[in-house]
Amino acid sequence: MNTKEMEKNPMPFDGLHEECGVFGMYDFDGGDVASTIYYGLFALQHRGQESCGIAVSDTSGPKGRVQSYKDMGLVNEVFTPEILGKLNGDIGVGHVRYSTAGASTRENAQPLVLNYVKGTLALAHNGNLINANELRHDLEYTGAIFQTTIDTEVIAYHIARERLNSKTAEEAVRRAVAKLKGAFSLVVASPRKLIGARDPFGFKPLCIGKRDNAYILTSETCALETIGAEFIRDVRPGEVVTISPEGGIQSDMSLALAPEKEARCIFEYIYFARPDSHIDGVSVYGSRIKAGRFLAMDSPVDADLVVGVPESGNAAALGYSLQSGIPYGTAFVKNSYVGRTFIKPKQSSRESSVRVKLNVLKEAVAGKRIIMIDDSIVRGTTSDRIVKMLRDAGATEVHVRISSPPFLWPCYFGTDIPEREQLIAYNRTIDEIREIIGADSLGYLDVERLEELSEGLSICKGCFNGIYPLEPPKEDIRGSYEK
Ligand code: SF4
């Protein structure tokens, strides 16, 4: 294979991708935060594997001094002890990224650092805005020059602009985020405060933690456990929190909606978040177990073994097994070391994209009727290969159960669910999909079950039923800055 034939692709499979993970920290005792941010980002690596970065500053130093480092690659590829050693400061933010809007380039890596008349801001953002184009054009017509093609820079400019007419940095953040439409969980390090904001729908998670005299804002609770911090609480949908030694944790709820209007991304529970995280008080692992139980109740089938497609299918498979009494087993061995520079095999090559990531344990499946649980089917290009791998390993029957409903609509809020025409479930019956993927039977989670996964918390189901919490854009604007 020559280099022209090689195609570099970070995630050569049919799965979905989260856009980002964020981590901010302020140590009131003045200790350096960069190495803790590094470990926090490491725990959030599943939320984005394309690029990462850390920006820190010293709250007792000059207001404009932010040191930052970001690059393409995994957290442990980008940061060395030497680089971390040069990032000195007691306040900072970090970010891991997968791009759903804005190209995958170093310029688009975060955090963004913005110098303006009141000092320096460092920002990290998770989510997608649906009015970023309008906001960007307004800014461009009044002289703004953009360095990147990501929504985050639009937010940064608005905060800087609002800061000129606001008494405090948090007031500027609140005024700026009031203009945003879409999904955002944001952490901002101002010269003397750590500020977090979560959009009124609460699409993406954000929580607060504490370790000794240091406070943390991060996407998932698993990152708090990794660094030995205690969980304080979730940032509520529509809340702006400000953390400083003078005020402790201050809350502004002026953008909050009625609880029934909130719209958490249900895919955080089904797939994106780590199973050891809790989002808004609900265990991600518990949700997945429940999804498996519901599949066993609603789509029962006689079989010898229930297996999960790693990782997020595993807990749902255990749930199916607990409910049905059919033994749970391991059928796949996963190679998790697929980094950014992974070279995707050519179509004609004998190495298959799926097999370099997953192998079947023949001893576990040979001669058995298998129930295989996966979290979703997007285009269907992976499912047929996994089913075939099980058959090639000697499975006598393969029954596929999916721990989410069929995808019928795209997502505009930070998940890369594509246009309808590319979705296998669009315009097809369940039996037609079953035939395409080569399964003996196929069952999806009933859309009516989704609220039970979030224990009654209000959720977004747009990609399943086309009813979005916000009017979707007339045209698909995702990534349109590049067009
Ligand atoms: S449309 Fe689907 S993927 Fe997008 S935010 Fe809503 S539930 Fe999540």
TrEMBL record:
Enzyme class, broadest EC rank: transferase
Pathways involved: Purine metabolism; IMP biosynthesis via de novo pathway; N(1)-(5-phospho-D-ribosyl)glycinamide from 5-phospho-alpha-D-ribose 1-diphosphate: step 1/2
Positions with a binding annotation for Mg(2+): S312, D374, D375
Tree of life domain: Bacteria
InterPro entries: GATase_2_dom, Ntn_hydrolases_N, PRTase-like, PRTase_dom, PurF, PurF_N
Positions of the catalytic residues: C20
Reactions performed catalytically: 5-phospho-beta-D-ribosylamine + L-glutamate + diphosphate = 5-phospho-alpha-D-ribose 1-diphosphate + L-glutamine + H2O
Cofactor note as given: Binds 1 Mg(2+) ion per subunit.
Binding-site positions, [4Fe-4S] cluster: C265, C411, C460, C463
EC number in record: 2.4.2.14
Cofactor section: Mg(2+); [4Fe-4S] cluster
Sequence intervals crossing the membrane: none
Pfam families the record matches: GATase_7
GO molecular function per UniProt: amidophosphoribosyltransferase activity
Alphabetized UniProt keyword annotations: 4Fe-4S, Glutamine amidotransferase, Glycosyltransferase, Iron, Iron-sulfur, Magnesium, Metal-binding, Purine biosynthesis, Transferase
Start and end residues of each Glutamine amidotransferase type-2 domain: 20-246
Functional note: Catalyzes the formation of phosphoribosylamine from phosphoribosylpyrophosphate (PRPP) and glutamine.
Protein family: In the C-terminal section; belongs to the purine/pyrimidine phosphoribosyltransferase family.
Name of the molecule in the record: Amidophosphoribosyltransferase
Organism: Roseburia yibonii
